[in-house]
TrEMBL record:
Name listed for the protein in its UniProt record: Helix-turn-helix domain-containing protein
InterPro entries hit by this protein: ArsR-like_HTH, HTH_ArsR_DNA-bd_dom, Metal_resp_trans_reg, WH-like_DNA-bd_sf, WH_DNA-bd_sf
Record lineage: Bacteria, Bacillati, Actinomycetota, Actinomycetes, Micrococcales
Gene3D superfamilies hit by this protein: Winged helix-like DNA-binding domain superfamily/Winged helix DNA-binding domain (1.10.10.10)
Matching Pfam families: HTH_20
HTH arsR-type domain segment(s): 21-104
Entries under SUPFAM superfamilies matching the protein: Winged helix' DNA-binding domain
Keyword line: DNA-binding, Transcription, Transcription regulation
């Protein structure tokens, strides 16, 4: 799994997650939404994240502390206007994990599977919501895309293809936003590649 950085973030390494605690934190739907909101909107307060994700402020604060303890978010005190205000940011602009890297840790493997399942479910739900409402945004409906390809690949070739797709998405994520007064919205692009049969 990989999440690329925001266009306005400085280039930084993608963090490889190998701890069960971090993976378990990512397997919670509210925490996943907080991570997404920080990715899309940048640093925020618990109040701002609560509004963005439809949670109570106390719940957002709790989830932020869990994410902090898992090493996924950190306070951004330089953004606070006073000592009472607490801002939060992502620790790394991107995360990556592979179950093979911690195959001996059954708790980490289970947490990785739960986080991956949640991610796939959220991708499906967002796709379904888009399809149900696409007609309300004809300018986006005309440009939204989906693709499916059947390829014959070795594991090494699938790894190479995945790296190329991730680099393409990272390039678009890092690009300078043109100063052209064109309104831009957050756009979800996801891809999966795995062995399957028709």
């Amino acid at each position: 799994m990989l999440m690329t950085q925001r266009p306005d973030e400085p280039a930084a390494p993608v963090r490889t997650v190998t701890e069960a605690k971090a993976l378990a934190a990512l397997a919670n739907p509210f925490r996943a939404r907080i991570m997404d909101a920080l990715k899309v909107d940048g640093p925020s307060t618990a109040s701002g994240l609560a509004r963005r994700t439809g949670q109570a402020v106390g719940s957002a604060s709790h989830h932020l502390k869990v994410l902090r303890d898992a090493g996924l978010v950190a306070e951004a005190p330089e953004l606070a206007k006073d000592r009472r205000e607490r801002w939060w940011r992502l620790v790394a602009p991107g995360l990556r994990w592979s179950r093979q890297e911690f195959a001996d840790d059954t708790a980490a493997v289970a947490a990785a599977q739960a986080a991956e399942a949640l991610g796939a479910q959220r991708q499906f739900e967002r796709t379904r919501a888009w399809l149900a409402n696409a007609e309300s945004a004809p300018e986006w409906d005309a440009t939204a895309f989906a693709t499916q390809s059947w390829l014959h690949l070795s594991p090494a070739e699938l790894d190479e293809l995945g790296a190329e797709v991730l680099e393409l998405l990272a390039r678009w994520s890092r690009r300078d936003r043109p100063d052209d007064d064109v309104e831009r919205e957050s756009v979800l692009v996801f891809a999966r590649g795995f062995p399957a049969q028709p």
